[in-house]
Amino acid sequence: MTQGEVVKLFKAITLSYPAFRVPDDMAKEQVMHWYQHLKDVPFDVAMENLREYVQAERFPPTIADIRRGYSAEKSTVPGVDETREWLAELDKMRKRAVPMPDYVREELRRIVRQS
Questions:
Q1: Are 54 and 28 found together in one domain?
Q2: What pLDDT sits at residue 68?
Q3: How many whole angstroms separate alpha carbon 36 and alpha carbon 30?
Q4: What is the CATH classification number for the domain harbouring 69?
Q5: Are 32 and 43 in contact (CB under 8 A)?
Q6: What is the C-alpha separation between 22 and 3, in angstroms, rounded?
Q7: E strand or H helix at 31
Q8: In terms of Cα–Cα distance, which of 52, 47, 45, 53 is closest to 71?
Q9: Which pTM value belongs to this model?
């Protein structure tokens, strides 16, 4: 998550919790503080945690609520950027792929029929 995304997160929290306010004289410090604790959490994960949180809780979330069990080492779900990179790599592989020769296809069919 970037500092700009922390600001977006604050705006989203404020929409659900109007009492959530960051004092103007502490805005930069507050963003930096949250950023230091959330920089390893993908923004989409933080927003999903917030969406789930607001459905059940009456008070604004804390950093721990936004992190809610996230650990970069434990996460096996790829983020948006990682998924895009992987799909781009798959497209490159598809373009380089050579179709299976007919004789190989026929040999495979013969082997499958025998088993």
A1: yes
A2: 86
A3: 10
A4: 1.10.8.200
A5: no
A6: 15
A7: helix 27-38
A8: 45
A9: 0.60
Count CB neighbours of 108 within 10 A.
11
Q: Are 40 and 4 in a shared domain?
A: yes
Clarify whether residues 27 and 14 are in a common domain: yes
Do 68 and 103 reside in the same domain of the chain?
no
Q: 92-101: which pairs have CB atoms within 8 A and are 24 or more residues apart? A: none
Question: In terms of residue numbers, what domain contains 89?
Answer: 78-115
Per-residue pLDDT of the chain (115 residues; tens, 9 = 90+): 999 999 999 999 999 999 999 889 999 999 999 999 999 999 999 999 999 999 999 999 999 999 987 665 555 778 888 999 999 999 999 999 999 999 999 999 999 999 7
Contact 17, 60 (CB under 8 A): yes
